[in-house]
Amino acid sequence: MITELNEYSPADLQDLEALMHELSSRGTCTESQLRAVIEDGNSHLFILRESGHIVACATLCVSHTPEGTLGGVESVVVSSACRGKGYGRLLMEHLLQEATRLGCHKLHLTSRPSRVAANRLYQSLGFVLHETNCYQMRCPEMGGCHS
């Protein structure tokens, strides 16, 4: 069963830390990061548990712009021990239903080309590759983002 994580235990934090590390070798999930997601009304962290442990997650980030309500899909990962069970599809289908419920008229997501199975899943759900320039900038810890 997929649920939105609204409160967490130390074990949940540990499970999410392990998942983020599977997503990226530099991936982290600190308590302050997790608390920020849970406390933000426009961030929705959906999880799937197996034997009491979080084994898959995905985040829906909703933003309201002049062109309408947009959704961003972030941090989608299924534990390597649980891949091939359809958990990624279940999670993404749930996220799509929630995005519709929340009024999103468009969803964005990025995925590294090396994540072949994930990219195949996204395409099977109706996502299409959108050619664009994708820019990224790291903001300093203090002082915000600026040139």
Radius of gyration: 15 Å
CATH C-level category: Alpha Beta
Instruction: Indicate how many domains the architecture comprises.
Output: 1
Order of helices and strands: EHHEEEHEH
- Proportion of β residues? 25-35%
- What's the helix count? 4
How much is the average pLDDT? 94
Molecular shape: globular
CATH architecture: 3-Layer(aba) Sandwich
- The end-to-end distance, rounded to whole angstroms, is 45 Å
Detail the topology: elements first, then pairings.
Blueprint: E1 2-4, H1 10-23, H2 31-39, E2 43-50, E3 53-65, E4 68-78, H3 87-101, E5 106-109, H4 116-124
Parallel strand pairs: 4-5
Antiparallel strand pairs: 1-2, 2-3, 3-4
Describe what this molecule looks like in 3D.
The model has no long low-confidence stretch (mean pLDDT 94). With 147 residues, this protein is of the alpha+beta class. It has four helices and five strands, in the order βααβββαβα. Strands 1-2-3-4-5 form a five-stranded mixed sheet, sandwiched between helices. Helices cover 32% and strands 27% of the residues. The protein has one domain: Gcn5-related N-acetyltransferase (GNAT) (Aminopeptidase), CATH 3.40.630.30. A hairpin with a 2-residue loop joins β3 and β4 (68-78).
Question: Could you write a compact summary of the structure shown?
Answer:
By secondary structure, this protein is an alpha+beta fold. Helices cover 32% and strands 27% of the residues. The protein has 4 helices and 5 strands.
